[in-house]
Amino acid sequence: MSEVLSYSDVNRRSLITPEGINLQVQLADIGARIAAYALDQLIINVGLIAAFFIIIFGGIAAGPEIAITIFILVNFFVRNFYYMFFEMGPKAATPGKRINKIRVASRTQARLTANAVFARNALREIEINLPLSFIFMSGDSIDGWIALLGMLWSGIFLFFPLFNKDRLRAGDLIAGTWVVRAPKPILAADLAAEKTVLESNYIFTSDQVEAYGVHELHVLENVIRANEYQTVKDVADRIRNKVNWEKGMSEVDLEFLKAYYAALRGRLETRLLFGVRRKDKFDKG
């Protein structure tokens, strides 16, 4: 009897973090990506309409030709750099993506780089804007064969994500990126509550707890919840090496991770009370 895979199983992929940890991520569904794109286009167009009136009415004294030239430049800049600006940020997502709880991620061990973001968005004009122009262009204004070729071109790029298992755009394929679900992470109170049980066996110094930040805390929470033997062992060994912890003969890796999670979470929450937020291990805060 064949095993029936759920929707989440089919769309789950492995993502290796820069720390060498194998996390399970879920690909963003097509509906969320379309909704995010539509919302981003709405934001862009509303902004451009506002910019149009500001530039036209503000540039009357300089002349309409200069005002229109300025608007064309603003239009080019906004349409080409809106996505790059937001996806190069710490959230790796535009406002439309953030609202739909999806984000761009690297498919490799490396962090998402500016080059990757630039590459995936540089093809957007060819993949999406140009095909849409062909679709909405009046048939009387162009040759019939050119229109047909344009429609074929449009179909190839617009439907490309539907015909590969990772739902990659051509830009994603070249840049080594994909779009994944990114629900807002919540620090788990149930894991931190085990501190009272484990703190007598695991006492960490301030320097040991200061080794990581919020990002690593979320990673550690996922590792503990997944509770995969080899991953737990590898992560526990990495943390021990990082903080110079001597492993005891009867020490259990999962208990060690839970104890360190509780200590790290408590330290980060204490720092937050003083307005200090350490986002990851590279942030000196």
Written account of the structure:
- By secondary structure, the protein is mainly α.
- About 60% of the residues lie in helices and about 5% in strands.
- The chain has 14 helices and four strands.
- Strand 1 (about 10-15) and strand 2 form a beta hairpin.
Total helical segments: 14
Helix content: 55-70%
What sequence of helices (H) and strands (E) makes up the elements? HEEHHHEHHHHEHHHHHH
Query: Strand fraction band?
Result: 5-15%
Mean pLDDT score, rounded?
A: 76
Shape: elongated
Rg, Cα atoms, Å: 25 Å
Q: What is the distance, rounded to the nearest whole angstrom, between the alpha carbons of the first and last residues? A: 55 Å
| Sheet with the most strands, sense and barrel status | 2 strands, antiparallel
Low-confidence stretches: 1-7
Structural class by secondary-structure content: mainly alpha
**Domain tally:** 2
Number of strands: 4
User: In order across it, which strands form the biggest sheet?
Assistant: 1-2
